[in-house]
Amino acid sequence: MPAARTADPGLPRPRILVTLPDAAWPADRGKRMRTANVVRGLASVAGALDVVVVGAEPQLPPGVAADRVVEVPLPPLRRGPALGSLLRHPVPWRIAAHDWRPVRTALQGMVRPGVSYDLVWFGSMDHAWMLAADVHAARVIVDVDDVESQKIRGYLAMGPGPGRPQRATRLQRRMELPGWQRIERSLLGSADAFVVASSLDQSRLTGRARVAVVPNTYPDPGPLPPPTNPMLMVMVGNYAYEPNADAARVLCRSVLPRVRAQLSDAHVRLVGRGGDQVLTDLRGLPGVTITGAVEDPVAELADAALVATPVRYGGGTRIKIIEAFACARPIVSTSRGAEGLDAIDGVHLLLRDNTTSFARACVDVLTDTALRDRLTHAARLLYERSLRPEQGQRMVANVVRDVLAGEFPA
After folding, report:
1. What is the pLDDT of residues 294-306, one digit of tens each?
2. CB 286 within 8 A of CB 268
3. pTM of the shown model
């Protein structure tokens, strides 16, 4: 990890604009944890910081001061106008389905006579693609914590099957893939830097823009004591996110019955937002509990003997795995679920990519205390080395300094 740098007192501190896709506080979910790190990192180097929060409450982390904080709605377009927008400007539906005019108006209104920004940090590719023309800044950084084209390719590679979305959804994803690829290529060629969540995503993106890694992180709860329920498997996630909902169904329909064939008391708790609405088809399955949103996910992990993440597609890095590392809870994951982390199979966690071997690994962890202790000790050390929030904040600040100095590392 790059060493932390201190600001040169002889250099002027830059004027920075950041657009955020979610509130930066409270940091109670993965996107907000990353957003909080970005805002704190930018505030540490900025002479003046303006924040535009798109479609969410404009809350900043405690202790962070900004010159201006503006909340701007991103209203959905009615289907007819959205389709018309899509035909005029072929872009992925997620972009075409919203009315970006309020955001553009707000950005244009923030321009002060004779003053421009030294740097703009766009909080997503959507923002950079739709709003770059409305921001006057000497340097541009685009935060891409989830590479959309890679996520779609992984989804399509699974092929159709039971429990997966309908053919129309697959067709939509296939049609959107070239659009996301075109956006990525264009922004890579025009931005001064891309920021991604892992070295794996860094290797996937090519172009004139430099690509830096700012990892996702998790606030340190301290290692938890031994679990209170030795047969409990937990999955934590936002189940409105399709890859998480798919993983929950794999866990409950394919993995859990195999585990219960050997350990009849084994059961699963699906913890997190959207579970009680999205996963209604799993209610009533033997050994399955769906909690919905909870105030404190760490309290749920205190009961758990195992964190299971059979994720089959998606991008970025999984906050749920970093959370388990921080809490010293053993993990069984797919390779896809743990990609982007410097985690080694058999050292920090167990990686299994089919349901039979995944279930067997779950049984091994649930019945072998020494294995659990070995995995959690190594995982906690990995967390302490590179996955704390303050480390992500320093890396944000370092990327900004390098871009402004024209010294962005190759």
Report:
1. 988 899 999 999 9
2. no
3. 0.87
